[in-house]
Amino acid sequence: xxxxxxxxxxxxxxxxxxxxxxxxGRANLKTLVLEGIERGxxxxxxxxxxxxxxxxxxxxxxxxxxxxxxxxxxxxATLKSVLADKAELxxxxxxKVTAEGTTYTADSVIIATGATARFLGIPSEAxxxxxxxxxxxxxxxxxxxxxxxxxVGGGDSAFxxxxxxxxxxxxxxxxxxxxxxxxSKIMVERAEKNPKIQxxxxxxxxxxxxxxxxxxVTGVKLKNTxxxxxxxxxxxxxxxxxxHEPNTKLFTGQLDLDKTGYIKTTPxxxxxxxPGVFAAGDVQDATYRQxxxxxxxxxxxxxxxxxxxxSKEH
Length: 314
Known about the structure:
By secondary structure, the chain is of the alpha/beta class.
């Protein structure tokens, strides 16, 4: 069992997990990263990243994550592309994490499992994801300068995304199944007053179409939720804003979660309700969801883990 014992186990990859591994590795902590099956997080399906500091010409999402990963390897972290399927965080130390039949133990744990954007689930969506279909206006809005786009959703995030996109797009249409919205009244009023925003109620996206070779979206087929009628609606980009799902099922009943499932951490820190267990990145951040904020919190979690271990005379 000794060979499977680590100072720190990091569950999840992406900017938070890999940054944590860089810092714990440099601190000479024996580090294991359980990357998951799809290592690298959401940036692995992001084409060009233009807002990550240090890359003035931009960088492809997968290339950025490869850089993060190689840097973690350079500082001695052990990386395994396996999915953690059980975590025992309560009770006496060490903590236990099982992945694909193997149990690993550690004196501290950093959770960086991220959050998954909810998508529509229609087949054509996968064809254009990251190539005209996006779940992050802040990340991708710039690429749609002067174009007509649509946003799917009816909550605050949908209205926020629509308003943000007016900085770039020539026209933004907000698509919603009903004519009532979960969004706050002020958000709806702000959108209604914006000349670039059109609200189109009683519709749902039935299909996305475009040029598959170039990955260019040219329109969607909209189904009227009252009559069932189908109409073609030309657009050049589609933003899905129907929420995110934090990847926290593994920790339910052990860690304190908020009402939407995100891990609660001490304000201004990454510490959870269990001493020695920390959370970084989108799994505890429902507000920013950016690569740079995830990386920053990964750094914080690593430093906190190191200090925690020092306090235990590790």
